[in-house]
Amino acid sequence: MNYRLHPEAALEHEEQVAFYEERRRGLGRRYHAAMLRAVGKACRAPHRFRVVGTPELRRVSLQGFPLAIIFREVSGIVQVLAIAHHRREPNYWRKQA
């Protein structure tokens, strides 16, 4: 299964890469790899993850980072709607659904 990043999720991803790389060299690359692993899990088995909102919004955490990917599966494509921090601005992504 393929995936697509919502434009706002793509921006969040770019910002996270820059933020982590600024904190420590190589950390942005580690974040990017964790994001790709999480998206890969979502693509392999999207229904494995619990529903956290409507319509059928699901969440997969990034290992080693306080972030989660909010996604939904539509017509065989995983749509990544947000890359959300676990504690900052909870549920802000609901308006993007």
Gist of the model:
The chain is an alpha+beta fold. 36% of the residues lie in helices and 30% in strands.
What does this entry look like structurally?
Helix 1 packs antiparallel against helix 2. The protein is α+β, with helices and mostly antiparallel strands and 97 residues long. It is elongated and about 40 Å long. The chain has a 5-stranded mixed β-sheet. It has one domain: RelE-like (YaeB-like fold, 2-Layer Sandwich), CATH 3.30.2310.
Observed structural traits:
97 residues; alpha+beta; YaeB-like fold; 5-stranded mixed β-sheet; 5 strands; elongated
Number of domains: 1
CATH-defined architecture:
2-Layer Sandwich
> Any idea what the shape is?
elongated
Characterize the biggest β-sheet.
5 strands, mixed
Distance between the termini: 20 Å
Write the CATH fold name.
YaeB-like fold
Q: Class, according to the CATH hierarchy?
A: Alpha Beta
Helix/strand/pairing category? alpha+beta
Record the SSE blueprint.
Elements: E1 2-5, H1 7-23, H2 27-44, E2 51-53, E3 57-61, E4 67-74, E5 77-85
Parallel strand pairs: 1-5
Antiparallel strand pairs: 2-3, 3-4, 4-5
Helix pairs in contact: 1-2
